[in-house]
Amino acid sequence: MANQRPPSGRPMSRGSLPTAGRPPTAIRPPPTAIRVGTGMVPGTGRPGTRGGNLGTPGVLSAQIKVADRPVTQQGLSGMKTGMKGMERLSSKINELTIETSKLQKEIDTFNQENSVYLSYEKRSAMSHCLDCGLCRKEEMIRAVEEEMEREKQAADDIIKKMSPEKQEQYAAMKVNNDKLLQELDARQEELDALIMRKETFESELSHSQVKQEAVLLHEKLQELEMRRDAMVAEDKSVGSPQEERDRLLKQVKEENQETASMERQLTEIREKMSQINEEIRQIDNDMEEHQGTHSFCFCLSVFLYFLDTFDETKALEVERNRQTQANIVTLLEHTSKNINRMRQISSVTASELKSMQEDLSFKETEMHKSHNTTKGLSSENLRLTQDLQKIEQLESKMNIEMNGLIHKIQTMSQELDTYSNLDALKTAGEEKKRRLLADRVSLAQRRDSFKKIMQKMDTKYETLKTQLQENETHAQLTNLERKWQHHEQNNFVMKEFIASKGMESDYRPVMRTVSRQLADYNKILIDALQGTRN
């Protein structure tokens, strides 16, 4: 029977598989109808074609061997269908990812080669710059030497043109100049040696606590010696008791004269104050004659009352002016109404109109008077306030001067009491002298002991320094430290160079731009596929 023939090794086609044998994809829905096989004679039952009966879809028959089944380009799974939609998109994404990784590897390789090439190029440029610098320096030195030769030749020409006496004088001065230059070189070398020795001592001193304490003690000793010399000079400057007494008496006389002059000045100031008070009283009397028969106390009480009630009075006047202005506005409105009424009503007489105008002029006059009164009171208050401030300033100044004079008199009295007791001063001076002599002896002993300690420490230091300089390990460590510093400097320069070149060859912004464009492109494709499906 045709249906009982064994299946051949030919792979099945798509048309012979039932619809249930092909599961739907995640994007495309399953087909609605089964495709009818073509190119087949009904009833022939040829196996492997679209009309033949097959077994269970997706399951190989037990009689088929793997070796007998032909292998296509796509493997054992048979012919693959053409990619559409998301499959094509995913394949493109994979290709772009592979291409991006390849580009990344190429960029890394290029960066490495570029860094090596740039380092070599930098070294060659540095060597070229050094060579150029050396050549430039040699040219400058050569130009300076030529200039010096020309100047020397010109100087020789000038010397040859001189008289014999000036030539001899020039030769003597030249010899003296050479000697001075040699001496200057020797002093400069000595100064450099001393500076190096000083720096060495300072570095050693910074690492030695004992030497720092010794230096502090030496400075303290110098300070104490200076104080001792000052005290000795002060002691020598002190004269005999009779001379001190004469000096103090002379000082007291001078201070008494100064006190007398101050008292005279104080008397003059008091006279000026009395004169000013007399002028004030005269002004008050003139004001009384001008204003009436009021007494000074009454004027003063009125003035103080005016100062106390000025703000309140001013506020009342301002409020009164405001009310007057409001009344004037009201009257003007009333007048305008009356004028309109007069136009409308012809029964208004001329006497009523005249009385209204008189009332308006009276109100305006009152308002101007109130303004003038306010201005006058303000100016009077300002003038009296200024006079009062001047008097208070003068009084405070006089009080300050009086207090200063009293304090000075008290100080001079205390000093006079102190210097009048010459025996106590002499006893205190002798006691201070004995104490300073004892301190001098103890400090001299300490100085000698510290000198011995310093000599021992210097000897020990020189011995250790000699041993350290003769030690090969120290020399090797010094050389290694210099090499280490040189390598550190080179490492720092290379790090800066690598950082600058890394910033120049940074591909990440480009990669982010490509990824963003790829995502936008994928989104556009997905939207387009969804739109075509809908």
Automatic annotation (TrEMBL):
Gene Ontology molecular functions = beta-tubulin binding
Where along the chain is composition biased (Gly residues)?
A: 40-52
- Tell me which stretches of the chain form a coiled coil: 86-113, 141-293
GO BP annotations, alphabetical order = intraciliary transport involved in cilium assembly
The membrane spanning regions, by residue number, are none
What keywords were assigned to this record?
Coiled coil
Highest taxon of source: Eukaryota
**Disordered: annotated segments:** 1-52
GO cellular component, as recorded: cilium; intraciliary transport particle B
| InterPro entries per UniProt | IFT74
* Listed name of the protein: Intraflagellar transport 74 homolog
Q: What is the species of this protein?
A: Esox lucius (Northern pike)
Q: What is the lineage of its organism?
A: Eukaryota, Metazoa, Chordata, Craniata, Vertebrata
Encoding gene per record: IFT74
